[in-house]
Amino acid sequence: MIQRIQTVYLFIASLTTGGAFLIEEVWTGPAASTQTWFIPTSMGLLGLVAVGAFLSIFLYKDRQRQRTFVLAVQALVLLAVGALFAGQFLAGTLPDANAYGSSVGEWIVVVLPLATYTLLYMARRKIDADIRLVKSMDRLR
Length: 141
Fold this sequence. Notes:
Order of helices and strands: HHHHHH
Oligomer: single chain
């Protein structure tokens, strides 16, 4: 079973992105009430990332396609991070590293997509390692 560790990474990435939907403070906060595009854009991108990360698990038979798919999901994560930052910045509620009044929910929603990106990067590296391993095994045959 070559694909085990990247399957775990992809599954955890799907769960972390899906977990962002459970944090109510961001979806009912000032960014959501002042920016009309914030909720549909952020939720749409995060939903695509969660579904994409989960569906890429089942592409294990075609590693090149799985790698390309994971790369596309990583691009969606960056778009989601940009949308989250832009919405919070335009609403003036971007969590400040030095502010004691920042809520935990705002920080978690900003950090979760970055953790998802890291997990997808680790999964892509393992997929690349599998591709190299299969090529080396093919050379030996």
